[in-house]
Amino acid sequence: QDNMDVCNDTTTLTRVTGQIENPLTGEEVEGVEILLNGQVETQTASDGLYSVTTPTRVSDVELSGYNNSNPLNGVSTADIVAIQRHLLGKEAFTSGYQLIAADVNNNADVSAADLIALRQVILGMEVDFMRYNGQTSWRFADQGENLSDNMSPWPFTEVLGEDEILAQLGSGNFHGIKIGDVTGDAKSNGLTGSTTRGDNGQVTLSIQEVELVAGERYTMEVRSEDFAEVSGYQYTMEFDATVLNFTGVQGGVLEVSHGNVGTSQVSQGLITMSWNDLTGEAVSVSSDKVLFTVTFDVLADAKASEAVSLNSLVTKAEAYDAELNVKGLNLEFRNGAQVVEVFDLHQNVPNPFKSSTVI
After folding, report:
1. Three-state SS sequence of 153-215
2. What residues contact residue 35 under an 8 Å CB cut-off, 6+ apart?
3. How far is CA 162 from CA 16, 182, 198, in A?
């Protein structure tokens, strides 16, 4: 501390150390590239720590973080529901960091446009957020600039210079905000476990078994016997492209449009869906009602259960209850009231994993 203003202003920093923490989870963020004056110097370790040598005057030092990997880390349709509830005034965000995470299109505001952008990435229509004003997977804010209670956090400091580093007593600490993850589900480092699924129940989508005949139109009506208090769901539907040609999705009791469906890999027999009620509310539907329909042109004879399945190849298959807890989601075929037994290899959970997984 230079209380008498007697120190030489060309004081040098030989080393700056810092840590990056996710403010929504309290976890340290691993794998962040640390840039010194625009050049990558190092990466944060599993404990979020880093250290860089700075053989320059403190007034010449600029530190920042960068990570554009795994955009869907912690991101799901549950985040769309949470953002929608915030916009409708039903469950307003309580942290400025949630607002930054919700600003998917990087325009210093949260609106319905962010919901559209986020869904495009969830559906696999966009590989990351870069199309939206250069938005990256993570953003890094000066930890000394606490934004927890700031409900108008823009602009925020992302480059630490002389004033910020000296204010942190020679350290360079950042808060790492995972874009799109307003519910705090992102896995920040290799020391934290993955979220397990299925502990909060299961939603089973039901389809009647039929014989598919080449040259006909197949309208697949989707129902469910346990669609109770569901806030949203998402999945990947895989179909045999030699048997079926996808033509569209239509809403039933649920409002479903082309904006809920991803078709970027339809030629490979994959379509994705992300749905939530436009009011942000949880929905219950009786088993006799059609949730939605999927239509195909039939190219070859087959059984429906042999041509269609549900998995997590592109968009993770899961549903959410009224409190946005994750529920399992699967698909069954029925012959009248009897369930048709179909052999299918589902996604292992959790994935990735270290010591054990469930198949």
Report:
1. CCCCCCCECHHHHHHCCCECCEEEEECCCCCCCCCCCCCCCCCCCCCCCEEEEEEECCEECCC
2. 41, 63, 64, 65, 66
3. 11, 31, 49
For the purposes of burial, counting CB atoms within 10 Å of the CB of 244, is it exposed (0-12), middle (13-18) or buried (19 or more)?
buried
Distance of CA 26 to the CA centre of its chain: 18
Strand 326-335 to 270-276 pairing: unpaired
Q: 170: which strand partners? A: none
CA angle 323, 205, 340 (to 5 degrees): 145
Residues in the chain: 359
- From the number of C-beta atoms within 10 Å of its C-beta (0-12, 13-18, 19+), residue 29 rates as buried
H-helix or E-strand containing 113? helix 112-122
Give the residues across from 53 on adjacent strands: 15
Instruction: Decide: helix, strand or coil at residue 313.
Output: coil
Please list, in sequence order, all residues whose beta carbon lies within 8 angstroms of the beta carbon of residue 227, skipping any fewer than 6 positions away. Answer: 203, 283, 284, 285, 287, 291
Q: What is the DSSP string of 17-49?
A: EEEEE-TTT-PBPPSPEEEETTEEEEE--TTSE
Which positions ≥6 away from 326 have C-beta within 8 Å? 76, 78, 195, 197, 200, 318, 319, 320
What is the distance between the alpha carbons of residues 68 and 127, in angstroms, rounded to a whole number? 11
Q: At 65, is the secondary structure helix, strand, or coil? A: strand
Do residues 117 and 80 make contact, with C-beta atoms less than 8 angstroms apart? no
Pairing state between β 202-208 and 326-335: parallel
pLDDT in tens, 161-177: 988 988 988 899 999 99
- pLDDT (tens digit per residue) in 200-215: 789 999 999 999 999 9
**Token match 């990087």: residue?**
106
Query: pTM for the whole thing?
Result: 0.89
